[in-house]
Amino acid sequence: MMYNIINACSDLGVDVDGANNGPLLISKNLNNKMINKFITVNKVDCKKSKSIHDLKKNLNEVNIFNKELYDKVIETLNSKIFPITIGGDHSIAVGSALGSQMVNKNLGIIWIDAHLDYNTFETTITGNLHGLPLAAINGLCDDLTKFHNGNFYNPKNTVIIGYRSNELNKDKEIENAKKAGITIFDNNDIKKYGIENILNKAIDIASNNTSGIHISYDLDIIDKQYAPGVSVPEVDGINLDTAYKIAEILNNNLNIIKSLDLVEFNPNYDINNKTLIVALNILNMIIKTNT
Ligand SMILES: [Mn+2]
Prior knowledge:
There is one protein chain. It is built from nine helices and eight strands. Helix content is about 35%, strand content about 20%. It has an eight-stranded parallel beta sheet with strand order 2-1-3-8-7-4-5-6, sandwiched between helices. The longest helix is centred in the first third of the chain and has 20 residues, at about 60-80. By secondary structure, the protein is of the alpha/beta class. It has a single domain (about 5-285), classed as Ureohydrolase domain (Arginase, Chain A). The two termini are about 15 Å apart. Manganese (II) ion binds near residues 90, 115, 117 and 218.
């Protein structure tokens, strides 16, 4: 199995700057003989909206970006290469996950994240589009997915792991997710049952009657003391052993995993390259050869 690394260089989905510079920094330091090639998608040149009154921040530019990323993921899969998309803020997953769905048809998804990313245009209070991608992928945010001509991900095969955030509008976001019927394993579930049990359960749910799984791994699931270089850091996250255990289990399941994102590395907030090194370790563990 060979891999294309797709650098998704956008921070237009969040009012914090810098996540657009994460992918190239990771790629520059990624030496792995299983990599076929590096592809880069850049955000369009624009004046980034950060207005608190704008509840669809940079919508047009995010859509232009995601359509281009979508095409790169489709192209990669059509040449029988595994796409790894490096973000970028999490709004880029609308492009990568739907691109994979377009080719693989009936995928499940595992969203590894401190946040639900399950706001809709009706419930977002910030207008930061990186808070909507999972709802969008389930077909609940039409304005973010007009470029997509295929199926959406079925909520029955949609699983979140690691949720623990305390955002102001979290009740509405949880309500969205519960109404849709997705499965949520929160941070306490990981503490109680262990990451191996939880991730294996998630894989069962996401792969049940599907053609495979798309993985979206947000670095903010990790405690901010180990991975401070993200746009919205959260305390009480998983430790590095757990973060690497996830990578190892993903590597063991590459037969059913069809595509993957690693997102939200923001070099502006990194300390002593901690987060960069964690991201590189995770990628090298996922794409190591099984021999
Ligand atoms: Mn996220």
